[in-house]
Amino acid sequence: MRLGIDVGRARIGVARCDAGAVLAVPVETVARSADGDADVRRILAIADEFGAVELVVGNPLAMSGRATASTDDAVGFATVLAAAGGESRPVRLVDERLSTVTAQQHLRASGKKARQQRPIVDQAAAVIILQHALDVERTSGAAPGRVIPTDEGSTPL
C-alpha cells in the first residue's frame, strides 16, 4: 500500500491505494504547519495506520519542466518527510503537472462549486498523483520519479 501526497502552501492532500496497488482513493487533508512538524507527524501516522510501504509526493514542475517555487517547496517537504520516515518507507517524487487543475475540473464536473472544492481539492489532487504513479508503474514495469535519499536531511536539492 502507498500514500499519495499533494503538497500545497496551506494544505496537504493525502490519498492511498488498495493492497494490489490498482486504485487510489482520498484519505485526508492535513493542515500545513507553518512552524513545527505536526504535518509531517500526521502524514507518518496515516502511513502507519494504513501500513504504507512508500510515500509518493507530487513534484509540481512548470509545463516547461523547470522548477518553480512550488517545486522547491514540495521537494523540501519530501526531503523532510524522507528524513523523518527513515529508510524503511521510501519517499518518491513524481511529476504532477496539472494535477490540481485536473482535480478541480473533475470536482466541477461532479457538481461541486468552487467553495465546496476547497476542503477536498488537495485530496483529489493526491488521488490523481498516486493513480498516475500506479498506472505508469503497471504499464512500464518501472517505478516513476525518483526516491529521495534519507541522508539528504532537510538540505534543499
UniProtKB/TrEMBL annotation:
Its main location: cytoplasm. Residues 1-103 form the YqgF/RNase H-like domain. GO terms for biological process: rRNA 5'-end processing. SUPFAM superfamilies: Ribonuclease H-like. It is found in: Cytoplasm. InterPro entries: RNaseH-like_sf (IPR012337), YqgF (IPR005227), YqgF/RNaseH-like_dom (IPR006641), YqgF/RNaseH-like_dom_sf (IPR037027). Its EC number is 3.1.-.-. Pfam families: RuvX. Keywords: Cytoplasm, Hydrolase, Nuclease, Ribosome biogenesis. GO terms for molecular function: hydrolase activity, acting on ester bonds; nuclease activity. One of its GO terms (cellular component) is cytosol. Belongs to the YqgF HJR family. Could be a nuclease involved in processing of the 5'-end of pre-16S rRNA. PANTHER family: POLYNUCLEOTIDYL TRANSFERASE, RIBONUCLEASE H-LIKE SUPERFAMILY PROTEIN (PTHR33317). NCBIfam families: RNAse_H_YqgF. This is Putative pre-16S rRNA nuclease. It comes from Agromyces agglutinans.
